[in-house]
Amino acid sequence: EQHPKAVIVIFGATGDLAKRKLFPSIYRLVRNNKIGKEFAVVGVGRRPLTNEEFRHNVQESIQSSIEDSTETDEFSSHFYYHPFDVTNPSSYNELKTVLHELDNSYNTEGNRMFYLAMAPEFFGTIASNLKKEGLTDTKGWSRLVIEKPFGHDLPSAQTLNQELREVFNEDQIYRIDHYLGKEMVQNIEVIRFANAIFEPLWNNRYISNIQITSSEVLGVEDRGRYYEHSGALRDMVQNHMLQMVALLAMEPPIKLATDEIRSEKVKVLRALRPVNEENVSDYFVRGQYYSGSLFNKSVPAYREESNVDEQSMTETYVAGKVMIDNFRWAGVPFYIRTGKRLKEKSTKIVIQFKDIPMNLYYNRKEDLAPNLLVIHIQPDEGITLQLNAKKTGSGVYGKPIELDYCNNCLDGINTPEAYEKLIYDCMRGDATNFTHWDEVALSWSYVDTISHAWKKEKAELAFYRAGSAGPKEADELLERDSFHWWHVG
Ligand code: BG6
């Protein structure tokens, strides 16, 4: 396959995402020979930096991925910095000249990727200026990559989308949900559609419930200002959690083409049972952490974090029961939970199968354990299947055993970073692992009713200690249905 060629323009190049994810991912793409020499990166930001200073930042950010330090000068020589004022047309004009020159010197054929990794209030302005000042007017392709948040509710997302669509077609817009770049999230589809032993069971006759957990150790760090208005529901559920639900629940696409997969995911999102003000507390729990300790260090309460209101009602934790009212899933709860300042960093999916019709191995003390399929997303990547087998020794009792597959143990720890895959996909024009407008709109409308109900204080805020496993209300949510969260290692 030919190396894709492009000039990548990063808006927000002095920001955290660029440093932590984007530069290292581009470096790995080069190192892994996915892109060749025909690329350049233009960092754009308000701060006045020289190319040298910018390249120094780039080199620093890739330190931990470097294998051979002599390569780094060559690598960083592809990076250029351009001080920029997003509201000033002459900034765009200058940038246009820079891009033309780079097109020539790097032979990038007019291909341009505009990566918006900065404050979302400028997304619309930037897009329309790019068009007005002729930056998208080249003989190659132009693509727009949009970081989250894509709006903060349905109306604001619609406004943003209209602004973008005045300039770019839907197929030029790449909305990032970085969970879709994760190796094991991409694996959901393969596990489901390449295995004869799962697909026939993948429905309400054989699956009793599905549990998706994404727990974090980090608090809000320096993102208080953003997070106060977002909370876990908008920050994690609207995008990452519902995307995982859609991948687990969708019908098999007729083929593995972007449009086919999208349209199956959209159907799942259309079938989500809406929650309303009256029943929100039957379906969703919101929580917030108070002070506690993590790894023997005491940490403050959410309300004591900087840029957070002392009486903040923002949720740092959400647990929910998502129902999909269609033929395949009627009656099967998809339980989701996610939160900050929990005891471990871990994302997992547990599929619990229904019990067999009759238990011949009841040993008076315990019921037989159900079969579980566990998909470990991070930090471990792998699959575990829990079965029952004979307990060694006298008597015929069943006991649970585990078949384990560890992905990042076998293929080496260097599984590609999510952003590495997504940047590469965008350069090749593959939008499968990006979110389509319909998906964004449907998941906002689902989430909006929940946040409206919460705003009207239609549900308690459950407090949990930092460093704990979350509020007990999240356990009660499942107990009401006679289930419990599985704690699988
Ligand atoms: C981001 C959220 O989208 O996802 C963050 O804004 C969160 O608040 C992050 O920490 C989690 O991503 P990951 O890849 O660390 O699970």
From TrEMBL:
Binding site for substrate: 178, 182, 216, 235, 340, 345
Binding sites annotated in the UniProt record for NADP(+): 12-19, 46, 85-86, 148
Main EC class the enzyme belongs to: oxidoreductase
InterPro entries in the record: G6P_DH, G6P_DH_AS, G6P_DH_C, G6P_DH_NAD-bd, NAD(P)-bd_dom_sf
Swiss-Prot/TrEMBL keywords: Carbohydrate metabolism, Glucose metabolism, NADP, Oxidoreductase
Record: active site: 240
Pathway participation: Carbohydrate degradation; pentose phosphate pathway; D-ribulose 5-phosphate from D-glucose 6-phosphate (oxidative stage): step 1/3
Keyword Acyltransferase: no
The Glucose-6-phosphate dehydrogenase C-terminal domain, residue ranges: 190-486
E.C. no: 1.1.1.49
The reaction(s) this protein catalyses: D-glucose 6-phosphate + NADP(+) = 6-phospho-D-glucono-1,5-lactone + NADPH + H(+)
UniProt domain Glucose-6-phosphate dehydrogenase NAD-binding: residue ranges: 9-187
Stated family: Belongs to the glucose-6-phosphate dehydrogenase family.
Task of the protein: Catalyzes the oxidation of glucose 6-phosphate to 6-phosphogluconolactone.
Protein name (Swiss-Prot/TrEMBL): Glucose-6-phosphate 1-dehydrogenase
Gene label: zwf
